[in-house]
């Protein structure tokens, strides 16, 4: 009897499982979508490289955008402006996002937390052009008196030195608008990470006599460190590629400067492309595409680093 049972079991194990039509369609669609993403990525990369070569190999004197300077000299201030605006936005948004996420996950009552979650998520649905209009027409004028105060009281610090812009359309205003735009994605990720903290860790910290803040500092933050870093990197990637809001808010000059209150501001690559693409012609278009290739490389590197952090965090189980 035992032998018959073992024989039937071995036959069932050797027999291939029957695959239903729905399973085949779903697996094929998922595989096709994955392959399509890779094909699009390769095609975009090939297009950027092919269109950038004329600007990188021709005489700069004949390029209407480069105007006699080398491509490296032209793109260096743009790379600085892109990274500087994104870093300023991240420095502003990161503490706010972590604080809001922590309040929603561990302090606010359930109804208030749900309402705040909806409001934060709603910010992600607002088009960037709306943020740009708000920043240029309302927010810049609102901040200008505050910039004057900063310059008068903290002008000894290099960031707040120089002559204050009369319109308020500075790199700091653009960074604040970018911070509002990246707030939803960073807050949402941090909130989910904080909610996944093992309850055993939190209850153990409270049982040992910790206050709520001590429990958060000893249990929640260590568990969510990788998630907070990955959220910051994803927000940085969003800020690096933002175009319309920065273009509409920033009074760009294309220089390298750390002063954040003056009318002489660095120009991010997306804003430079948006401002000059309409009048570009000939190899000038190739020069702008070449700057887009640099932006593509920077953004890809940031997102790759974020994915690496997320994958490392996924290997850790806080319940153990």
Automatic annotation (TrEMBL):
Entry keyword annotation includes Membrane: yes
InterPro entries attached to this UniProt entry: MetI-like, MetI-like_sf, Phosphate_PstC, Phosphate_Transport_Permease
Pfam families from the UniProt entry: BPD_transp_1 (PF00528)
GO biological process terms held by the UniProt record: phosphate ion transport
Domain ABC transmembrane type-1 per the UniProt entry, residue ranges: 79-306
MF annotations from Gene Ontology: phosphate transmembrane transporter activity
Superkingdom of origin: Bacteria
Membrane topology: Multi-pass membrane protein
Keywords in alphabetical order: Cell membrane, Membrane, Phosphate transport, Transmembrane, Transmembrane helix, Transport
Chain ranges passing through the membrane: 24-51, 71-104, 116-140, 171-195, 243-264, 284-306
Cellular component annotations (GO), alphabetically ordered: plasma membrane
Compartments in which it is found: Cell membrane
Function of the protein: Part of the binding-protein-dependent transport system for phosphate; probably responsible for the translocation of the substrate across the membrane.
Family of this protein: Belongs to the binding-protein-dependent transport system permease family. CysTW subfamily.
UniProt name for this protein: Phosphate transport system permease protein
Species this protein is from: Microbacterium invictum
């Amino acid at each position: 009897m035992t032998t018959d049972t073992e024989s039937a079991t071995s036959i069932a194990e050797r027999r291939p499982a029957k695959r239903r039509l729905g399973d085949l369609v779903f697996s094929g669609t998922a595989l096709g979508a994955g392959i399509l993403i890779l094909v699009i990525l390769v095609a975009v990369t090939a297009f950027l490289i092919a269109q950038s070569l004329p600007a990188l190999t021709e005489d700069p004197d004949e390029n209407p955008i480069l105007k006699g300077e080398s491509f490296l000299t032209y793109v260096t201030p743009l790379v600085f402006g892109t990274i500087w605006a994104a870093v300023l936005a991240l420095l502003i948004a990161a503490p706010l996002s972590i604080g809001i996420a922590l309040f929603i996950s561990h302090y606010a009552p359930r109804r208030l937390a749900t309402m705040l979650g909806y409001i934060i998520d709603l910010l992600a649905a607002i088009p960037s052009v709306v943020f740009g209009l708000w920043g240029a027409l309302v927010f810049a004028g609102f901040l200008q008196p505050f910039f004057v105060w900063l310059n008068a009281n903290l002008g000894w610090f290099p960031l707040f030195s120089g002559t204050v812009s009369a319109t308020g359309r500075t790199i700091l205003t653009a960074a604040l608008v970018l911070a509002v735009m990246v707030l939803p994605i960073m807050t949402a990720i941090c909130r989910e990470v904080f909610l996944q903290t093992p309850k055993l860790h939190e209850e153990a910290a409270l049982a040992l006599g910790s206050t709520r803040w001590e429990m958060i500092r000893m249990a929640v933050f260590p568990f969510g460190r990788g998630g907070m870093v990955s959220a910051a990197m994803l927000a940085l990637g969003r800020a690096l590629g933002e175009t319309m809001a920065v273009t509409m808010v920033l009074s760009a000059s294309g220089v390298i400067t750390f002063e954040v209150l003056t009318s002489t501001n660095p120009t991010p690559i997306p804003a430079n492309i948006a401002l000059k693409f309409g009048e570009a012609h000939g190899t000038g278009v190739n020069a702008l595409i070449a700057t887009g290739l640099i932006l593509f490389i920077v953004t890809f590197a940031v997102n790759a680093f974020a994915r690496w952090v997320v994958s490392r965090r996924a290997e850790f189980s806080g319940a153990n």
